[in-house]
Design a protein that fits this description.
The complex is a heterodimer of chains A (280) and B (174). Chain A has helices at 3-28, 57-69, 87-99, 115-121, 147-152, 177-202, 206-212, 220-226, 235-244, and strands at 36-42, 44-46, 54-56, 75-82, 85-86, 104-113, 125-128, 133-135, 217-219, 231-232, 252-255, 278-279. By secondary structure, chain A is of the alpha/beta class. Chain A has a single domain, classed as 2-enoyl-CoA Hydratase, Chain A, domain 1 (Alpha-Beta Complex), CATH 3.90.226. In chain A, α2 runs parallel beside α3. The longest helix of chain A is centred in the N-terminal third of the chain and has 26 residues, at 3-28. Chain A is flat and about 100 Å long. The relative contact order of chain A is 0.17. Chain B is of the alpha+beta class and 174 residues long. Chain B has one domain (2-170). Chain B is 58% helix and 13% strand. Chain B contains seven helices and four strands, in the order βααααβαααββ. In chain B, the strands form two sheets. Chain B has a two-stranded antiparallel sheet. In chain B, α3 (65-93) packs antiparallel against α5. Chain B is elongated. The chains are: A alpha/beta (280), B alpha+beta (174).
Chain lengths: 280, 174
């Protein structure tokens, strides 16, 4: 065979290999091309047993990490529609937001209270609607107690425990004063962490602090006046803020948990989050 | 006047390629790799995958495992294409383009053309030898036949091309 022909064959083979392998590999490893990540925080935040209407902190953290790892993403918008959730789950997400190297804008839509506000307060800028529900700084814990119902139906509850306090929080007996005190310590520790975090992040005045620390829910306007929110507005204000961050031609990439069907298997081990201290 | 063809055994005519020529041929092949393989491959790969590689710093690359994996996959594939180019050119042209430009060719130690097995072992061993490049270079200088690790493994030699078929007129005196 002619040498030139062999050279042409070699050139064609190598070119074909370059084009096909780079295309296949490029499609396989393609990453979202938008420059702003939209991460939605909807529903109750839990650290385990997520069901419909709730979101796992692990999922939110992995979405934030994916946005952080994507070199195309220049800023992250956290769209919040949540009343909070378990205190540790909220704290985990809040810490993640705090440690992100990219700017984060929290956009509170209908509601951003309690644990959801804890997370928002870790962001660089908070925008909410004037009608949004914001705040509810505090910790709460509740459960249904059936002891009198059981007695009414002649059911006796027998408990055998290694210690007096081992069974504190049982649904079938009243809380003793000691147990109540211990639970209040847990709740107060959780509340103190929340309050200190907000003080540190938002630089609130003592007047604002005295108002918000009772756990009340505020409107967006009230929250803005007290310094819990940086700006009142909606998506347009979010885009303006992104442009101030020197992000031109905003192209939003929504980050969401993949999977077509909801994970019903987690119904089986679902435990109501309210038996744990929660930022609800 | 009758023309006779006298075919002489290749080994008798073997002149081992000099180290300088081999290094120069290697540099030419590296330039071919860089401009004709690596650059078009990576530009196509990164444009399809959407990775703004020009914006990615070294720190970000080292701290971002996903990004590191993506970049490594690209590097590994382009290097594999380079090995394919080396093997393909030795199969079709009996030497890489760099060697052909300097009139060198690759033969087996016995003076014959490369077998398929020699071609495969030679080029696979090049990927191992790539990590031993300084050792490989020193070995080439001290070996009397200027062989690299891949030459040792595959029993091959890089030689200067000489006309193997000599044509000369013989006067028929009868």
């Amino acid at each position: 065979m002619n040498e030139i022909l062999k050279l042409v064959i070699l050139f064609l083979l190598v070119s074909l290999l370059i084009i096909s392998s780079s295309a296949v590999l490029g499609v396989f490893y393609s990453i979202p091309s938008g420059n702003v990540a939209l991460v939605k925080l909807d529903g109750e935040l839990v650290s385990f047993g997520s069901v419909l209407g709730s979101q796992s902190s692990d999922d939110i953290i992995s979405l934030l990490e994916a946005a952080e790892d994507n070199p195309n993403i220049e800023a992250i918008v956290l769209s919040i529609n949540s009343v909070g959730g378990m205190s540790v789950a909220s704290k985990e997400v809040s810490n993640k937001v705090l440690n992100l190297s990219k700017p984060v804008i929290a956009w509170i839509r209908e509601v951003g209270t309690s644990g959801a506000y804890l997370i928002a307060s870790s962001s660089d800028y908070i925008i909410s609607d004037e009608l949004s529900m914001v705040g509810s700084i505090g910790s709460t814990m509740s459960y249904l107690e059936f002891s009198e119902t059981l007695t009414k139906y002649g059911v006796e509850y027998e408990s055998l425990s290694s210690g007096d306090l081992k069974e504190m929080g049982s649904l079938f007996k009243n809380l003793t004063s000691e147990e109540r005190e211990l639970y209040m310590d847990l709740i107060n520790a959780s509340f103190e962490y929340f309050l200190n975090h907000v003080i540190e992040q938002r630089n609130l005045t003592s007047e604002a602090l005295s108002i918000v620390s009772d756990g009340r829910v505020l409107s967006g306007s009230q929250a803005f006046n007290l310094g819990l929110v940086d700006e009142l507005g909606s998506w347009n204000e979010v885009v303006k803020e992104l442009e101030l961050l020197n992000i031109k031609d905003v192209k939003v990439e929504e980050y969401s948990v993949s999977g077509f069907f909801p994970d019903f298997s987690s119904f089986l081990d679902f435990k109501p989050s309210s038996v744990f201290p929660t930022y609800d | 006047m009758t023309e006779y063809k006298i075919i002489l055994p290749r080994k008798d005519f073997t002149i081992i390629a000099s180290v300088q020529k081999r290094i120069l041929a290697f540099i030419i092949d590296l330039l071919i790799f860089f401009f004709l393989i690596l650059t078009p491959f990576l530009s196509n790969y990164y444009s399809i995958s959407g990775i703004p590689i020009d914006k990615v710093g070294v720190d970000e690359l080292l701290n971002n495992t996903q990004l590191y994996a993506i970049v490594s996959a690209g590097d590994f594939t382009s290097y594999s294409i380079f090995l394919f180019y080396l093997a393909g050119s030795e199969l079709l042209l009996k030497a890489t383009i760099g060697k052909r430009m300097l009139n060198l060719s690759v033969i087996s130690k016995k003076g014959k053309d490369l077998s398929l097995m020699q071609l495969i072992t030679r080029n696979i061993s090049k990927s191992i030898a790539f990590f031993l490049l300084p050792f490989d270079a020193v070995l080439m200088f001290f070996d009397p036949e200027h062989r690299r690790v891949s030459d040792f493994i595959s029993s091959t030699l890089v030689v200067e091309n000489r006309k193997l078929i000599k044509k000369f007129p013989v006067v028929n005196e009868l």
